[in-house]
Known about the structure:
- The chain has 267 residues and is mainly beta.
- The chain folds into three domains: 1-30, no CATH class; 36-124, Immunoglobulin-like (Sandwich); 131-238 and 257-264.
- The chain contains two helices and 16 strands.
- Strands 1, 2, 5, 6, 11, 12, 13, 15 and 16 form a nine-stranded mixed β-sheet that branches.
- The longest helix is centred in the N-terminal third of the chain and has 17 residues, at 2-18.
Amino acid sequence: MKQFLFTKxxxxxxxxxxxxxxxxxxxxxxxxxxxxxxxGAITNEAGPYTVKITRSISFNSDNxxxxxxxxxxxxxxxxxxAKDTLSESAAGIYSTHAITNGIIGHTYHLYIKVGGVEYTAxxxxxxxxxxxxxxxxxNTGFGNSVTNAIPNFQDPPNGYNxxxxxxxxxxxxxxxxxxxxxxxxxxxxxSRQLFNDSSYINDKDTVLLEMQCIDKPIFExxxxxxxxxxxxxxPTSPANPTTNISNNxxxxxxxxxxxxxxxxxxx
Length: 267
């Protein structure tokens, strides 16, 4: 997102500067061609699971992502050779039938064909790390106070682990990406604030926290995405995060575990 903001405000500055001169400068902020965007997941919770296929938009477009219909979508459990051809349950939404229980340690392969172009992705569901509790911490400064949720859990030693958190406050999703790995905390007990930029927790608010254990390619995807646009889960051309999907597609395919806990903040 920083790149986009820089481009936009640099363009605005150039337009203002040009207005003081006799020569008119025509600046094209972004006319990138649309790309396929794939968003799919297999979890340890009961399915069916879905794969969403849309097309990306340019920087100046409204946040309306055109659905891609009529695609061939197949998910395979590489550990058991189970194969599932997904059906289009809604425009651009493809649902599983045979694979309805994701299994920890199994590797899943995604195959998509759209208009003669093929896309593939692979993700392995990591071991689940259990979330113990959700607590809170209030930070004060400059006359304000901000309360953040804290997931508390034991990181396993001697192995790579990465975590992605989704947060709802009073049932409303927080449009922000919370992701980190155990590069500096392997084997430690983790109590880490999820710093809110766009949502604040007040007295008696109910917070629902979803903890996902993700593999390294998905961690890298969310890490890069959070550095670009933490309030928007959809990629925007150009300068998109590195994906685990082939053939220049955008998005991700993730096999991950899910656990949720709810806590009420009290001052």
